[in-house]
Design a protein that fits this description.
The complex is a heterodimer of chains A (about 400) and B (about 300). With about 400 residues, chain A is an all-alpha fold. Helix content of chain A is about 70%, strand content about 0%. Chain A has four domains: about 80 residues, no CATH class; about 55 residues, no CATH class; about 80 residues, no CATH class; about 90 residues. Chain A contains 18 helices and no strands. Chain A is elongated, with a radius of gyration of 58 Å. The two termini of chain A are about 75 Å apart. Chain B is about 40% helix and about 20% strand. In chain B, strands 2, 3, 4, 5, 6, 8, 9, 10, 11 and 12 form a ten-stranded antiparallel β-sheet that branches. In chain B, strands 1-7 form a two-stranded parallel ribbon. The N and C termini of chain B lie far apart (about 55 Å). The chains are: A mainly alpha (about 400), B alpha+beta (about 300).
């Protein structure tokens, strides 16, 4: 009996609106003759009442369509009436559309929007999460062999490393070089001027670089000795000065006075050497003398060995000091970098080892699941799992455990 | 009637011709209403029949194939009747909308020309109470959107937002965000004067002080008000739902404030009940106040804050 009853049927109350009660203006307008018509001031109220009527009629229309569909479905197939409901909703829209061409007018107003309701910017597509994960991906991805290769490549010392630790030889002093350059330039200018004036004078003006050097040397040799007036080396002079008594100068002034006894001989010697003999005085072995004196002084412990002044000279060379400083810095930095790279390589290698293990864990996970499925299948068929299946399951489990232990260790 | 309407405003020839048109339309409307009633009486008989059949089926407490077939037949007829009735009702409502738009056009034209008809007294002299009544009236008569089965509510129906390229027409009411004298930003009720496509800016008049304050605002600062009421009985999805943040016109003012929906309307002519954000109350919200569908719009700011 109950099967016959249609449970979805709602027996709606389709009573129409009592317009006499609910819509007084509407009723009043109905009673009027054509001549009386409607006033503008009545429009608002009429609109509301007509809307009420329309709303009720539309509701009735929907309900009728729903109930009618239920009846139809129920007649067609008596089972599963209720499940048909959702599908029916879709049909609902199709049927009444044709029956009302008159609504076109109102549609006209909303025409432009009705065309594409999907275009309404309600939910703009948000791809920010995807972009975020894409940016994070490289930091979480597995380490590949290529990356390790790159690291190893980086660890090799660069070929040009030695280049940076070289100390280039000290060149000519800039004052000399500049002097030479200036002279050359002037000669060239002069030659050009001469060329213009007298072509014949050409050979005379053609002084080349050798001549310049010679000229410079000549000027140097001319300049140096007068500065000092002494052919002896600095050590020789110092030694001599140390040996000669200090008051030597005052007696020299009164040298014409002969009555200073005991000092005459010394005076004479001193007076003759620098002054009287002057420039004509030339000593042949000044250089070797200087060297021997130095040697002797060093061996006597009166003078430090040569390298001391050497380092002293270095410290005076600002450029060299700076170069050494920078090289030291570079050395420290590259050593630090190397240590970091080595550490990174070690970690990367360790990680790849772990990755391999994880890969194996995944494989063995699958194996375990496979075994589990097989046993479950057996159980569903109400038979005890075979020994083979059990063994496989145990094997898979044990393997997985061992790998996990490795991974933890 | 025609004579009366004509005498009300014969300021210009254009207005007169508009008046003739309006009176014609009113006659048509009258006819349509009469037809509506004919349609309704026709279907009434059938509906009565359905009711009787229902009663009989329910007393017998079973559904015999005979009744099923009979009921199906009755339903089909009633459905056709209802469709016809809806159609003619829509037609009548369209007529009303047409007349109203003509009246509105006339009002704007008159305003532009600086001429005011008797039926539309100059706003400058309007008292606040009158303005409030007018606003309420226009909210009440905002057309109700009643879709045919399967139609989904269009943009600007209830809570449905306007499409992104929507441009409000002159005379449309909008919520406009303006800077007040003290520098505060406020959403006011305004009427569109014009829209410039080159600058994407609206010119709007403050509804409260028409003519005194004209604002030029970028379209971001304009929210068009709904052009249809959503029908809670048929399209509840086109209404704001409870606790949703909205901008609502505070009763007896012409300003929109942030509010939460307390209860959505249940019937077409019902208003929203909203709780305004109000720090003078202990819980930060005013007690529930009624605001018409027309004056409740989505609050754009909720994303920022």
């Amino acid at each position: 009996m109950s099967e016959l009853d249609c449970p979805a049927l709602k027996y709606y109350d389709f009573k129409p609106v009592e317009h006499g009660r609910v819509c007084p203006r509407y009723t009043a307008v109905l009673g009027r003759s054509d001549d009386d018509g409607i006033g503008i001031e009545e429009l608002d109220t009429l609109q509301l009442e007509l809307e009420t009527l329309l709303s009720s009629a539309s509701r009735r229309l929907r309900a009728l369509e729903e109930q009618r569909q239920i009846l139809t479905d129920w007649q067609d197939k008596k089972v599963d009436k209720r499940f048909l409901k959702p599908g029916k909703e879709a049909d609902l829209s199709a049927t009444p559309r044709h029956s009302k061409p008159k609504k076109q007018k109102l549609d006209g107003k909303e025409y432009e929007f009705n065309e594409d309701p999907q275009d309404m910017p309600r939910n703009p597509k948000n791809d920010a999460p995807n972009r975020f994960w894409a940016s994070v991906e490289p930091y979480c991805a597995d380490i590949t062999n290529e990356e390790i290769k790159v690291l190893e490549e980086l660890l090799k010392p660069p070929e040009d490393e030695a280049e940076y630790y070289k100390v280039p030889a000290l060149g000519k002093h800039y004052s000399q070089r500049w002097a030479q350059e200036d002279l050359l330039e002037e000669q060239r200018d002069g030659a050009r001027a001469n060329d213009k004036k007298k072509g014949i004078m050409g050979p005379l003006s053609e002084l080349d670089a050798k001549d310049v050097d010679a000229l410079l040397k000549k000027s140097e040799s001319q300049h140096d000795p007068p500065e000092d007036g002494c052919p002896f080396g600095p050590l020789t002079q110092r030694l001599l000065q140390a040996l000669v008594e200090e008051n030597i100068i005052s007696p020299m002034e009164d040298s014409p006075i002969p009555d200073v006894p005991g000092k005459d001989s010394a005076n004479d010697g001193a007076s003759t050497s620098p002054r009287s003999q002057g420039k004509a005085f030339s000593v042949p072995h000044t250089r070797s003398l200087e060297a021997r004196i130095k040697e002797e002084l060093v061996s006597q412990g009166l003078l430090d060995t040569e390298d001391r002044p050497g380092t002293g000279g270095d410290s005076e060379d600002e450029v060299l000091a700076e170069l050494h400083k920078r090289q030291a810095e570079l050395k420290a930095l590259s050593a630090h970098n190397r240590a970091r790279k080595q550490e990174l390589l070690r970690l990367a290698k360790e990680e790849t080892r772990k990755q391999e293990l994880r890969q194996r864990v995944r494989v063995s996970d699958n194996e375990v699941m496979e075994a589990f499925r097989r046993i479950m299948a057996a159980r569903q068929k109400k038979r005890t799992p075979t020994k083979k299946e059990k063994d496989q399951a145990w094997k898979a489990l044990k393997e997985r455990d061992s790998i996990l232990k490795l991974l933890d260790g | 009637m025609t004579a009366q309407v004509g005498s009300k405003s014969c300021v210009t020839m254009a207005l007169v011709s508009a008046d003739t048109k309006i009176s014609e339309l009113l006659t048509e409307l009258h006819q349509l209403i009469k037809q509506t009633q004919e349609e309704r009486s026709r279907s009434e008989h059938n509906l009565l029949n359905i009711q009787k059949t229902h009663e009989r089926m329910q007393t017998e407490n079973k559904t015999s194939p005979y009744y099923r077939t009979k009921l199906r037949g009755l339903y089909t007829t009633a459905k056709a009747d209802a469709e016809a009735e809806c159609s003619i009702l829509r037609h009548a409502l369209d007529k009303i909308a047409e007349i109203k738009s003509l009246l509105e056009e006339r009002r704007i034209a008159a305003k532009m020309a600086g001429v005011y008809s008797d039926s539309d007294p100059p706003r400058k002299t309007m008292r606040r109470g009158v303005l409030m009544t007018l606003l309420q009236q226009s909210a009440m008569t905002l057309p109700l959107w009643i879709g045919k089965p399967g139609d989904s509510p269009p943009p600007l129906c209830g809570a449905m937002p306007a499409s992104s390229d929507y441009v409000a027409k002159p005379g449309d009411k909008v919520a406009a965000r303006v800077k007040a004298v003290d520098g505060d930003e406020q959403w006011i009720l305004a009427e569109v004067v014009s829209y410039s496509h080159s600058t994407n800016k609206y010119e709007v008049d403050d509804i409260d002080e028409e003519g005194k304050e004209r604002h030029t605002l970028s379209r971001r600062r304009i929210i068009p008000l709904p052009q249809w009421k959503a029908n809670p009985e048929t399209d509840p999805e086109a209404l704001f739902s409870k606790d949703q943040l909205v901008l609502a016109l505070y009763p007896q003012t012409t300003c929109f404030y942030r509010a939460l929906i307390h209860t959505p309307p249940h019937r077409p002519q019902d208003d929203y009940s909203v709780l305004f954000e109000d720090t003078s109350y202990a819980d930060g919200y005013s007690p529930p106040l009624n605001v018409a569908q027309r004056y409740v719009v989505a609050c754009k700011e909720n994303k920022k804050k």
